[in-house]
Input
Amino acid sequence: MRAPPCSSDPKKLFDASVLDDPHPFLSVVRREHPLSRVGDTGVHLVATWDGILEVLGREEDFSANLTGMLIRGADGVPIPFDFPSLDGTQVIATADEPHHTVHRRLVSPRFETDRVVDFEPMIREWTREALAPFLLDEGGEFVPIAERIPAQVVGSLLGLPDGDAERHRAWAMMGGDMLAGEVGPTRMQALALEGQKMGHYLKRHLEAASKAAPDPSRASLLELLAEGVRAGEITLSQATGIGMVMFGAGGESTSALIGSAMRVLAEEPELAEQLRQDPLQIARFVEEVVRLEPPFKFHYRAVRRECELQGYTLGPGDRLMLLWAAANRDPAVFEEPDALRLDRKHPKHHMSFGRGAHFCVGAPLARLEARVMVEEVLRETRQLSLVPGHPPVYAQSIFTRRLESLVVSTRKIA
Output
């Protein structure tokens, strides 16, 4: 039996410099230790494109179930934190077969191409409303705007009241907070209590949705899930869990993408002007931003049984961190991997929305929201820049790549 090597000082994962900019650290890990362990935690980093593809193709060995996470211990050394096994927690993105296929089939009608296209006028209207005071003031803090639109979209998808948008926005950030690895006991307890409130809220709306006889072509996600409960395909707890996942997957990830896109535009005025002159390139720009700065830097996999990966032995109870952020800059796959290039032959060839069976069902909607935001910002401005003395501030999270502050100055078109 041969255990994977330890990549470096395990504390590096939680180093402030790595949380602010993970890419130099990930580059070293990918180059020197494509598969490596994090101290004695039982957690292993998978850092190359081919390595991640192999894991994704071996569900018999590697489960998508989220059984625990890595957190910073009291002395700064990472330690594992195990989750209790509860009904309804392993749903959609964290479900294995045959359950994953059932969950995905239930929600997929809401994400079909023609349904996503129908969202564009509403998303554009919401975006213009959110941007209007920001542009009138010639800029300011952009993060609330980046968070607001995805929260409105998720609420609309689920069929929830528009007046609860601020509550939805707060809930959308909770999943990333819990997996950040930096949350102390007090904050974790508060998140757990808020999670219970979200669960009760969704159950109430699921019960209301179950009284309807929805038209599948127009039904909300909660109506589709309620129908699945009535048909005995999923439990009420699973339906609630899927609704909760939608907040983080559709809210936090998209707001992170929008924030990163705005940061790049503010930092690179020549690129922003190029996109103003050729708006058809904006979709490619969005793909490069999401490749370079995936909203979720990794996802976990749980080792089911003793097996080998890349010549090393793993055992049941071990966990893998599939480092999308490292694979997306793998020089074996990408020419000039650290450069934002609008001329890539296959612009969607990245892992930021996952890969294979667990590819993000909401990816087309996230792309649409980001594209519309970039189009509207560039259409209404002639100049964007960061405000001196107010550098971008990223969430101190090993899991998410999300801005908590982005102060931008704008000049509106006269």
